[in-house]
Specification:
alpha+beta; globular; four-stranded mixed β-sheet; binds zinc ion
Amino acid sequence: MIRLFQVFCKLNFKTLSEKQIFLSTMENFSEEKIPFLKLPCPKCGAKHPIWSYHDSYIRYLISYQNKTIVTDTIDVTRIICSSCNGTHAILPEIIIPFNSYSLLFILSVLKDYFLSNESVVSLCERYQISVSTLYEWKRLFLLHKKLWFGILEDIYHNSLEFLLSIPNTNTSDALYDFFSKNNISFLQGRRKTARLNSS
Ligand SMILES: [Zn+2]
């Protein structure tokens, strides 16, 4: 997969729905623009392969907008590398690989959880998630927070303050650093699956 980290540095992202953010990011990856992409291949390491459109697949994107849960479907583009024929899904940073819930959705749940003004049961009802999902996200968040700051620094960073500080204009860069250092996306629950034609 190819991850794009370019949304949160744009100040206007807050006025757009997550589907609009996705669509506006993908405007740069339309079929006619793909052969001109200057992206290294994450699979074979070729610095300037020629990319072509391969196919696309539909997936859900669940977001939380204006206190409402919104379930959209999005069309994820996959491109193919001329050098190794590896195919890669293009995923902007609002998407967490293998998770239908958007990054901002999960951050919103966790912010409310750490604010602790609401019972877990009521919070889960409001977001229509199970209690076990909430605790799994909390576990993952605390684990990834350690990776984000480093184990020694982590204890100095309060969970709620950290959550309230993202997203900001540096979040795209920070998410990129997290992804390149750890080879996994922030709040991604499982590593890539062994799909033969995709990575
Ligand atoms: Zn390649």
